[in-house]
Every structure is written in structure tokens, then in C-alpha cells.
Amino acid sequence: MKALRWHGKQDIRCDEVPDPAIEHPRDAIVKVTSCAICGSDLHLYDGFMPGMESGDIMGHEFMGEVVEVGAENKKLKVGDRVVVPFTICCGECDQCRRGYFSVCERSNRNKSVADKVFGHSPAGLFGYTHLTGGYPGGQAEFVRVPFADVAPVKVPDGLTDEQVLFLGDIFPTGWQAAVQCDIQPTDTVAIWGAGPVGQFCVRSAVLLGARQVICIDRVPERLEMARAGGAVTIDFENESVVERLNELTHGKGPEKCIDAVGLEAHATGSLDSLYDRAKQAVMLETDRPHVLREMMYVCRPAGILSVPGVYGGVLDKIPFGMVMNKGLTIRTGQTHVNRWTDDLLRRIAEGEINPSFVITHRAKLEDGPALYKTFRDKQDGCIKVVLQP
Amino acid sequence: MLDMTRRSPRPETASGLARGLGWFSIALGLAELVAPRAITRSLGLRGQEGLVQAYGVREIATGIGLLGTRQPAPWLWGRVGGDVLDLATLAAAGGSRRQREARGIAMAAVLGITVLDVLCAATLSGTPGRATSRGGMSTPRSYGYGGRRGFRDLPERMRGAARDARIPEDMRIPKLLRPYGN
Ligand SMILES: NC(=O)c1ccc[n+]([C@@H]2O[C@H](COP(=O)([O-])OP(=O)(O)OC[C@H]3O[C@@H](n4cnc5c(N)ncnc54)[C@H](O)[C@@H]3O)[C@@H](O)[C@H]2O)c1
Ligand SMILES: [Zn+2]
Ligand SMILES: [Zn+2]
Q1: Which residue ranges run through the membrane (chain B) (predicted)?
Q2: A residues 15-44 near B, CB within 8 Å?
């Protein structure tokens, strides 16, 4: 089969590889009909996440048709149409039973390494480094889905791939980011990043009833899309983020702040960003936490920082004094996808939201490598890429 | 080494080269910063230690810039400017015959590096970067995403449509922090 494989920094190729096979009786094999490139894939593409090996198959946003099921899998049958959440979970461990699927205690088959790196291991993820299991990903014609009797979401035929594909990651991610803010009708929610995740944060915050939703980025067409979803926008390249946020909140700062940017934050002309670039360049720091610092600074006391943006390692100059003295709450994590999928599938089916609004590029799997670059560089108005194997 | 039969290196080779030049800048800069006396002595630039250290700072800054950016071309042109400055400083000095010889060798080395810098900068200047609102390569263009609201109705009318969602207790703020204790 064909698959997009990582061969090193900024080197992704469409290769011919052996088809996957059932390895465990709870597995299923899914023939991928649509898959997408995620902002998290860009962190791998740019070489910021440790634990990738040459030849790893990329991709964790995918859906398709079940073509084979293991003997013990009672949930799926051949022919089912499923969206597969990017977090692999067993459904039985303490964490899964509490709904903390992204920290399932059993799905990471490289648990001992992850235990060393993270203290305790999170769940296994598709196409996302050997620290989270090194499972071959979904930017491929076929995928083996472990614990396939737990996470895959069956979708009705009446809904198109494009309507439901994002149930596997970015829609629940934006949703959880907003839910974690426990939005009150009086709240201003400020969202850094108008990428695909930021777009779903904006829509979720509006649906959950925030009084004011503000979105920060510098890419004009992304800001335009955020405004279409009901956000007030700030262009951080041409305006002072802190000043504008204070203006929009009568000097008090937003109650809730969401970081939908992650470890590759850009900043123009700020001292801390030069510092990060320098330290990252000589490998003394792994991440660039400019957005985190800005949120800690501008957030209203007793507010919440919700962090879906991905960080990989060690961060410098985090003003924790501000967090402590203002009594801020930080909530973060990979998304517990299955906690939200039933509710969100219903909202899609009822037409409340149609997630396909975010798709700007559609192409064949073979064109994937070129589109990684287009997406990364935000060329050609690219916001979300969907590939069809 | 660089294949001189090609008119200019391929962009991928040039990016690698740019990183190499970045590390080189940092190494040279550190040497200039911590051991200016050794350098001025051998090149007959005695009394110019301050200048050499300033050049060191310049090299380190350029090196870090080169390693930390996706668009190394401006930093490389910065290096070319620095090379010219180095050459001028070397050419202007006097000193003994041995020191003049040493400076000749140093100038040859700097010239070699200058050629690399120019080649690399010229190649990478041709590679387009991200189109941004300002200073981008392509003219700003509207993509017409203004209608992509994603909702079935106007956002104003969708505000609060999902207030029926059950917010799990573990994701709520402690009761005391809720504005009206609801
Ligand atoms: N927690 C999860 O489970 C989960 C799931 C999916 C994605 N993610 C993460 O969410 C983040 C965003 O993903 P995406 O797909 O939207 O990626 P993306 O790269 O398309 O979007 C990031 C956006 O942030 C903007 N940005 C950069 N610096 C900024 C700054 N200083 N202020 C404001 N905006 C800035 C960029 O211009 C870009 O539009 C990534 O870190 C990704 O890894 C997390
Ligand atoms: Zn993702
Ligand atoms: Zn589990």
C-alpha cells in the first residue's frame, strides 16, 4: 500500500510499504477513505518532537471502512464506516473508566520509555513518535487499529466524510479546550491561534455561550475565517495583543485564555521570542512558549488557561509567579476524544455545526508531501488539508 | 566540499550549508570573544582587542540568527557584510613581515568563506518564503473565507446554542470561583 512516511526533518515521502495485518484479536483493519494533516504533524515535520524514527508512517486524523476484524472484536464488523480517534484506549483501565482516554494506562506499547521521559506514560497515539507507542499512522491506504472495539466512532451513511472526519481530533480538541474553560455567559474567551484547532475553539466557545470571543493570529485569511465564526480578531504582527485584550475587557483581561498555537509560536519584535529562538537554535530549549507567557500575563485573576497546544519538552522563563499570585487554573492534555464524540456527532447530524468549513485543500495521498509544506508555510490560503488515498 | 561545477548549490544543499555557516559563526565568534589577544598578536592587530571582541559578538549573533530561522538569506547577506568588514580590517593593518604573511593567509580564508556566503545567500534568496501580510513574496490576496461560519445560522444566533451540553464536573471551576456561584 501507499503511505506517507517520515524520513527526517522536513522530509516526508509517499512510499510503497507492506499492508498492515491483524496482530491482536481486538484489532481491526481500516481502509482509509479520508485523512488530514494536523498542526501536530507539523511539530514532527519540523523535527521538534523527540522519538521519531526514519520510516514511521504519519497521520492521526483518519476515517474509513472496516475491512477486517479480529476474532474478539464484538463492536465492529466488516463494512462499518468509522472515524478513528487519534488517542488509542483500552476502555478498561482506571484512567479510561474515568474518561481520561488520552492517558490510558495500557495502550502505549513503549510505556517503559515514556515512563522515564514523562514520569508516567500517556496513551498510545497513531503516527506520533515512539514515546506514544510508535503506532503506524493514518496517512496511508490501510491502518491497523489496536483496541478497535473501544474508540472508533461508527458514523451514519447520511453524513459525508468531510462532515465527520474531524471528530477524530480537531473538533473535539477545540471543544474540550472550550469546555475546560467552564464558560460562563459573562466570559470573554481569548484564543491564540486561528489554525484549524483555533477555528474549532472559536466555534465551540460561541456555542457554549461566551459573551465575547477573541482570536489572535497574523495570517489574514485565518483571521477572516475566525471572524466568520463570530470572533473579534487581533493581528499580533500589527497590534499589541496585551493592549487590545485589555481594551476589549475594560482593562480587566479575559477570564479564559486558550493556547491553540503550541510549541512553535511566532512572535514579532518581542525580547522573549528572540531569547527562545536563540536557545532553541543551540539546543538549550526545546519549545517556544511565547503564547503561554502572554496568557499568564494578560489573564484575569482567578481565570483559566486552557492549553490544547502541544508542548514537547522543557520550557524556559515561565512566569509562574503570575500564575500563583493571580490564582490561575491551568488545564491541558491531549484530547479525551471519546468523551465528546457522541454529543458532537449529534450536533453535526442536527446541522448545528458543519466542520467541513475549515477545509481549504483537497488532494490525493501522493500530493501529501508537498502539502505538508504548503500547510506549514500557510501558502495559498491553506488552513486544512484533506487527503484521499 | 561544494561542487564548483554547478553554478549554484541546490536549495536543500544551501540550507545545510547555511546551518554549517551558522555553527562556524558561533565558533569563530566565541574564539574572538574569549581570546582576542591571541588573535590580535598573530595578525599584527595589537590594540584592536575591543574591535575583535565586537566582531565576535557580531559573529555569534549572526550564527544564532542563521540557526534559528527558516529564512536564512538575510542573515547570510549579513555575514557577507561582516566578511567585507573583516577583509577591510585585515587589509588596513601594518606590522612585521611575518604578521603580514599571517594576515595574507587569514584574508585568503575569509575570501573563501565569503564566496560560500555569497553563493549560499544568492541561492536561498531565490527560494520563496511564506506569503505574509507584509513583506511577502506574493501579493496579498483575499481567499474569500468570510462566509465560512461553520454554523447553520449567523454566529450571533448560535451563541449559547450548546448551553445544553453537560459540562463534566471535573472540568468546571471550583464553585467558589464561579461568578454567581451557579
Ligand atoms: N491537545 C490535543 O489533543 C491537540 C490536538 C490537535 C492539535 N493540537 C495542537 O494544537 C496546536 C494548533 O494546531 P493547528 O492544527 O491549528 O496548527 P497550525 O499550525 O495550523 O496553527 C497554529 C496557528 O498559530 C498561529 N500563531 C503562531 N504564533 C502565534 C502567536 N504568537 N500568537 C497567536 N497565534 C500564533 C499561527 O499563525 C497558526 O495560524 C498545535 O500545537 C497542535 O499540535 C493539540
Ligand atoms: Zn492532531
Ligand atoms: Zn485504558
Answers
A1: 105-124
A2: none
Please enumerate in sequence order all residues whose Cβ is within 8 A of that of A131, keeping only pairs 6 or more positions apart, or say none: A50, A51, A110, A113, A114, A117, A118
d(CA B42, CA B140) in angstroms, rounded, equals 54
Choosing among A12, A377, A378, A383, which should be mutated to test the B contact, i.e. which has the most B CBs within 10 A? A377
Q: How does the average pLDDT of chain A come out, rounded?
A: 95
Topology of domain A2-169+335-388, CATH:
Quinone Oxidoreductase; Chain A, domain 1 (3.90.180)
Whether ligand 1 lies within 6 angstroms of the CB of A355 is answered as no
* Residues A176/A335, Cβ–Cβ less than 8 Å: yes
What residue ranges do the domains of chain A occupy?
2-169+335-388, 171-332
Nearest to A188 by CA among A287, A99, A254, A110: A254
C-alpha cell read off for B120:
549560499
In tens, the pLDDT along A141-179 reads 999 999 999 999 999 999 999 999 999 999 999 999 999
**Is residue A172 lining ligand 1, measured as CB closer than 6 Å?**
no
Report yes or no: B6 at the A interface, CB cutoff 8 Å: no
CATH superfamily of A171-332: NAD(P)-binding Rossmann-like Domain (3.40.50.720)
- Read off φ and ψ for residue B2, nearest 5 degrees: -75, 140
Question: What distance in Å separates the CA atoms of residue B48 and residue B144, rounded to the nearest whole number?
Answer: 59
Q: What percent of chain A has pLDDT over 70?
A: 99
Handedness of CA A297, A300, A302, A308 (dihedral sign): negative
CB burial string B154-173: b at 16+ within 10 A, e below: ebeebbebbeebeeeeebeb
Q: Which residues of A touch B26 (CB under 8 A)?
A: 282
- The answer to whether B148 contacts A282, with C-beta atoms less than 8 Å apart, is no
Q: Tell me the residue type at B23.
A: W
By the 8 A CB rule, do A214 and A190 touch? Answer: yes
Global confidence as pTM: 0.81
What is the C-alpha to C-alpha distance for residues A49 and A193, in angstroms, rounded to an integer? 20
Q: Does the Cβ of A266 fall within 6 Å of ligand 1?
A: yes
Relative to the alpha carbon of A103, which ligand is closest? 3
The ligand minimizing its distance to the Cα of A101 is 3
A225 lines ligand 1 (CB under 6 A): no
CB contact under 8 A, B145 and A354: no
Return all residues near A169 (Cβ < 8 A) that are at least 6 apart.
Answer: A36, A38, A60, A61, A85, A86, A335, A337
